[in-house]
Design a protein that fits this description.
By secondary structure, this protein is an alpha/beta fold. It has helices spanning 14-19, 36-44, 64-71, 111-121, 133-141, 154-157, 208-217, 251-263, 292-306; strands spanning 4-8, 29-33, 50-57, 61-62, 77-85, 88-92, 103-106, 126-129, 147-150, 161-167, 174-181, 193-201, 223-230, 238-245, 264-274. Strands 1, 2, 3, 4, 5 and 11 form a six-stranded mixed beta sheet that branches. Strand 1, helix 1 and strand 2 (29-33) form a beta-alpha-beta unit. The N and C termini lie far apart (54 Å).
Length: 310
């Protein structure tokens, strides 16, 4: 396997900035790709060791392109996550004035994060989506558009200047990125972990989603993300992408997954991995009756009952 990480390019994306916060990135060749599917396919095809892509932002929620790619196709697994605070700059060719801007571009996920700023400052400007924010900057450099929303750090890379900086509609906006590789044994639990899965129901029935969520609830497993995605099989057919607190080696998480495996048409395990910016001291204490010790004590009691030793 090549010692390389593919990422959503071109150079100068927020994805690249987030990727370079991983210590191991210094020992890998970082290969920009034109899209999230291209980055993930590089892993599936054996062209890269891993891919680094955005998966969620705090303004609009899940990045649907990434979620859909992880739902479909050859299975992949998440190994790491990174949180990055996001503010945008309005990048233009040198000398461009705000009043001269008629067209703007950026990645589709950027639009909800600058919508109000656009309405207040460039209400008549036309919006066109780009493959990434840095690609939008490249298109401005080539004269395709008048301005791009991107990281201020991308200006020098594309010969542009930042006409406005610190642009954001929501304070403390963050984007979550994940390092994705081929399936393997998950890393050892840290005490501050997250487990990601995709669930497909056997059929559509009243209380179906409640049944799925109940497998987590009765075992004291907290959910951190729940998003439905269409399966492509017709209107009303959905699967559910879920992030849950804990590691698959935790008894409460493992038993929840076993329960889901029994009642779901399909369960896709996307990995157990350390939560970004969280230490074991930050993690809430599991509810009474859901610690590993209590699960093992209960299992031992059942075994003794089966042996007539109760």
């Amino acid at each position: 396997m090549p010692a390389s990480y593919a990422y959503l390019g071109p150079e100068g994306t927020f994805t690249e900035v987030a990727l370079r916060t991983l210590p191991e990135s210094a020992t890998r060749e970082l290969v920009p790709m034109v899209s999230v599917p291209a980055a993930l396919d590089a892993v599936r095809n054996g062209e890269a060791e891993a891919a680094f892509v955005p998966i969620e932002n705090s303004v609009e929620g899940g990045i649907t392109t990434t979620l859909d790619e992880l739902v479909a196709g050859e299975p992949l697994m998440i190994y790491r996550e990174v949180l990055l605070s996001i503010t945008f700059a309005l990048l233009v060719r040198p000398g461009t004035k705000l009043s001269e801007i008629k067209t703007v571009t950026a990645h589709p996920a950027a639009q909800p994060q600058v919508r109000n700023w656009l309405k207040d400052n460039l209400p008549d400007a036309g919006w066109e989506s780009a493959a990434s924010n840095a690609d939008g900057a490249r298109l401005v450099q080539e004269g395709r558009y008048d301005a791009a929303f991107a990281g201020e750090f991308a200006a020098a890379r594309y010969g542009l200047e930042a006409l406005e900086t610190g642009i954001h509609d929501a304070e403390n906006a963050q984007t979550r990125f994940v390092l994705v590789g081929r399936p393997a044994r998950p890393a050892a639990p840290t005490g501050a972990d997250k487990t990601s899965v995709v669930l497909w129901q056997r059929d559509d029935h009243p209380g179906g989603l409640r049944d799925l969520l109940g497998e987590f609830a009765v075992r004291g497993v907290n959910l951190m993300l729940l998003q439905s995605r269409p399966t492509g099989a017709g209107i009303g057919n959905y699967c559910f992408c879920i992030d849950a607190e804990g590691h698959i080696s935790d008894r409460r998480v493992a038993e929840a997954l076993m329960g889901l495996k029994r009642i779901c048409l399909q369960v896709r395990f996307l990995g157990s991995y350390p939560r970004a910016g969280v230490t074991p001291d930050d993690v809430r204490v599991p509810p009474a009756g859901t610690t590993d010790h209590e699960f093992m004590t209960a299992a031992d009691w059942v075994a003794r009952c089966q042996d007539g030793r109760f």
